[in-house]
Amino acid sequence: MKVQYLKSASVLVEHEGVRVLCDPWLTDGIYYGSWYHYPPLEITPEDFSDVDYIYISHVHPDHLDPETLRRLPDHIPVLIANYKDRFVHRILKQCGFEQIIELQGHHPYRLADDFYIEVLGADFCDPALCGHAFACQPEPDRVTYALDTLAIFSGGGKVVVNTNDCPFGLTASACKYILNHYGKVDFFARRLCRGRTLSAVLRTSGRRSPFAKRGAKETPIH
Known about the structure:
By secondary structure, the chain is α/β, with parallel strands linked by helices. It has four helices and twelve strands, in the order βββαβαβαβββββαββ.
């Protein structure tokens, strides 16, 4: 399995020749023209037009960027959480995507013969409160946004966890589940603190990828 860091929270995960593009924000000027990449982008959405899947963790523009998505082929399957409120689904439909796969929590989805993704809901949601699997009814005594998800990629005996913007409360509570079901984590991509994405903490090494000349880095998971 390989993890290739691109920009901000954008990451490419690959195993068995199947590539999953996570949270592609590859343009500038989101949030009403206030957010830009620095150093400037040296990659474009079109560089990833041949990926096999796109995973969108949540609705914020630095993770779900309509301009980036409209420049990618709309036949690529998009993986999202199975939220009760289908705001992410609606935006993807507006972008023209034909295959939107809504994943149920605690049910790994097969991407290849030995490559799976599992998506867990965030924001301190307790599904027992409302009977839904994902963040739709927060606990009343906690501040929550009911937005974020994390992704667990597994294959070839390796486990990669991408927590992107998930609050510490979710990642801490998910550790027991992940260890019980997967036994270990080989690569952990997490947010550093509020307002900073996993780009600040990814440790990258190994051979150079075709995108290395553009500033992207790749980490083989041995």
